[in-house]
Amino acid sequence: VGAWPAVVGRDVLPDVPPALVVPAIAAWTQLFGTVGFELFGQYENVVDDREAYLDAVADAAATSVGLPQR
């Protein structure tokens, strides 16, 4: 992974434990991408229940950084 997580953790996410810097960025990216896909219709004819899908993505993102699911 290199040294960048420590730099990002120090400069951008100072309250996030170093071990969670990469999972936090990955979770944010996944949520951001999921919302973007929804906004631009990328889930049409792919995901029938998009609300349930977003809930599942949010739960997975929360779990990946040690937060409880809803």
Number of helices: 3
Largest sheet: none
Low-confidence stretches: none
Indicate the overall shape: elongated
Summarize the helices and strands and which ones pair or pack:
Layout: H1 4-11, H2 21-39, H3 50-64
Helix pairs in contact: 2-3
Please tell me about this protein's structure.
With 70 residues, the chain is mainly alpha-helical. Helices cover 60% and strands 0% of the residues. It has helices spanning 4-11, 21-39, 50-64. The longest helix is centred in the middle third of the chain and has 19 residues, at 21-39.
Short descriptors:
70 residues, mainly alpha, 3 helices, 60% helix, elongated
In short:
With about 70 residues, this protein is mainly α. It is built from 3 helices and no strands.
